[in-house]
Design a protein that fits this description.
alpha/beta; Rossmann fold; Heat Shock Protein 90; 2 domains; seven-stranded mixed β-sheet; elongated; disordered N terminus; kinase; Anti-sigma regulatory factor; protein serine/threonine kinase activity
Length: 306
């Protein structure tokens, strides 16, 4: 992948405590408003309340988004938060996005790190600024090291500096790993003639594993999209597996196609585009999406909280 330099800015803000957090975010917001730029703040609820209080009356001019809801699935943040905000406003915008916080699980983190890396490839040469806060006190050293790899510029109490470790491609690949095998799963092989049967299989298994009815419908929709992609754009056949782990019902689709675009599912289809919407929809309805890509095979695992 290629990062296009220019007017796009992606800065990692390394902060410690509420005062540093507000010192790093509020002036950035106010400067954007003074320049007449639309501003969005997508951070976890507690930090959102801190910023809103500090902004006072200016908070009414900012789009405030609770990242724990809008970005619970990291694969939803680019299409559903960042691009959704930027694409519907003319000219440059400013966004604060905090996709990684101390409450994130180890299960979710790889998709978070890949998201931060892929931001650098998603916006091309657009005039756009994104600031991503990282809590130095509460996040692990490995997470902070990844922040250096995914942000070309780092900011903190000492000001801005270029990141010597910037390597977003390496982070995408670092977390492109085989997913742990389930202890037990129900499996179903499908091809074009059995696409309708895939839906029934997924519905029956999800209901058996205790998924709420409205979430069963979302899971079946996601499975239908993934299996159709396997038939139309992959090898023409595949395997779907369903099982339960603790608080999740999981579904996995395995096929012999190669997904070559790491931004697939994280970038909305353009108007008039044929196809390209299935993976975006999957990210929209699932609580988490993990993928393992290798030549000749794509594994997509989706999680639905029970």
């Amino acid at each position: 992948m290629t990062v296009t330099a220019g007017l796009f800015s992606h800065v990692g803000l390394l902060y410690s405590g509420d005062t540093e957090y507000l010192d790093g975010t509020v002036p950035y917001i106010l400067e954007g408003l003074k320049l007449g730029r639309p501003v969005a703040v997508a951070v976890p609820g507690r930090n959102l309340a801190l910023i809103e209080a500090a902004l006072g009356d200016s908070a009414a001019e900012v789009e405030l988004i609770d990242m724990t809801e809008a970005g619970r699935n990291p694969g939803r943040i680019l299409p559903g938060v960042l691009l959704a905000f930027a694409d519907h406003r003319p000219g440059p915008v400013r966004i604060i996005g905090e996709p990684i916080w101390a409450g994130r699980s180890a299960l979710e983190y790889p998709a978070c790190a890949q998201h931060e890396a892929l931001i650098n490839f998603a916006f091309g040469d657009r005039e756009l600024s994104i600031l991503c806060p990282y809590d130095r006190d509460r996040l692990e050293d490995d997470v902070l090291a990844d922040a250096e790899r995914t942000h070309p510029t780092l900011s903190g109490t000492g000001g801005d500096r270029p990141s010597a470790g910037y390597a977003p491609d390496a982070v995408v690949e670092k977390y492109n790993l085989p997913l742990p095998e389930p202890r037990m799963a129900d499996a179903f092989r499908f091809d074009l003639a059995r696409l309708a049967a895939v839906r029934s299989f997924a519905q029956d298994r999800a209901e058996e594993y205790g998924l709420a009815l409205e979430r069963v419908e979302d899971l079946v929709l996601a499975v239908a999209e993934l299996s159709a992609n396997s038939v139309l754009h992959g090898s023409g056949h595949g395997v779907v597996r369903v099982w339960r782990e603790e608080d999740y019902v999981l579904c996995e689709v395995i096929d012999e196609g190669t997904l070559s675009d790491p931004l697939a599912g994280r970038r909305p289809a353009s108007p008039g585009q044929i196809g390209g919407r299935g993976l975006v929809l999957v990210n929209q309805v699932a609580d988490l999406v993990r993928q393992y890509l290798r030549p000749g095979s794509t594994v997509t695992r989706i999680y639905f909280r029970v």
